[in-house]
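Ticket #4471: structure output looks truncated?

Reporter: J.K.
Steps to reproduce: submitted the chain below (188 residues) through the standard prediction queue, then opened the result file.
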Amino acid sequence: MAAVEVHDRKSLGFLIGHADGQFIGGRMTDCVSVNACYPVQTAIRGRTGVGFDNLAARKRAEDTVRAGGFDIIGGFHARPNGSPKTSRGDVDYILEESDSVYSKTGFTRWLVIIVGVKRIKHPSRSGPLRKLYARGKTPGPGFYPHNVIPTISGDLLTGPDQAFRTEAAGYWFKDGKVEKELRVYSRY
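Returned output as attached by the reporter:
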């Protein structure tokens, strides 16, 4: 939702969650549960880049999350009209952040969720949403998921004539490397 709010610019924030176990494919699997995200209001946002304003603002945001009793397990960033795939710039930036900031806080790995957001100009004529409109009434606001594993993708309808296609993918950054794209599940 934070990515859709500023859909024409990049955004970023922290992921709040904890280690967990879930039944996936019929067996208990170690995983991470992301309970919420905290969009960073002081981020410098543009169409092609996003970053923290300064270290004091970043520390204040981190301290605010922790003061609420939450664990930061990673971060998210969103790309307007983009893909949720990591770019070379993403990898370089996150590895640099891991070395300079997160390693000092005790993080051994950092989860990154990248969200691609694209505004749908005519929801009633767009792919999966077209079927909903064809039933003779305007669908209500909500998230209409597409089943595309390993990502979470779907259309967020915010009004009868306003919708956004979103796709989110997750990646672990650990020991100076990025692991392949993770399976991401939603309880939607």
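Triage note (M.O.): checked the attachment and the full token line is present. Residues 104 and 114 are 24 Å apart (CA to CA).
Status: closed, working as intended.
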